[in-house]
# Entry
Amino acid sequence: MKSAVKISVLMSVRNDAPMLPNCLADIRNQSMTDYELVVVDDGSTDETPDLLKKVSQRDSRIRLIRTEPHGIVSALNTGLTECKGRYIARMDADDRMHKTRLVKQLEFIQKNPELELIGCRVEGFTDKGALSESSWQYQSWSNSLISHEQIESDLFAESPIVHPTFFGTSELFEKIGGYIENPWAEDYDIIMRAYGSGAKLGKHPEKLLRKYHAPGRL
# Structure
């Protein structure tokens, strides 16, 4: 994979028009500018395609790919084949990122070259009210795991790195063959296969992403 930019932000969307503008604004307002945004529209039927078309016409860093609705694994793999960055950063349309997220994760992984896949701490939010007790407990547990050793020790408890915080080398995603369709969570599967390949894992110690918890989310 030839690197034309430092970072490829990879996002899969489907019918995300209500939340997408804020997410796109966060990406456009990043403190670093050497990135591309690869958005795979997985068969949206709402205003998402028009919204993405408009923003991509205003910003050449945004590349839009439209597909039939085949699901997130297919969409993310389609996006991976289009990413030109040395590093791949995941993002979800309903989440928010701090304006320094990309530069801080880039600096962190460059200062720790043994790491191939990192995340960051997160702060959950809802449409209104506090997080559920289970969501708060998972967030607290995930945020407590920073080093490779800490992540490794709890690797089989739950997914230790929140998916939209993923920031990894393009070489790692190539090495493990991208995402795989399984009966279990695709993000946890990526972490397990990365670990199984010998990859070192880590996490930026700051809260650089706000994770949205929709009503009724498990």
In short: The CA atoms of residues 36 and 61 lie 5 Å apart. The chain has eight helices and eight strands.
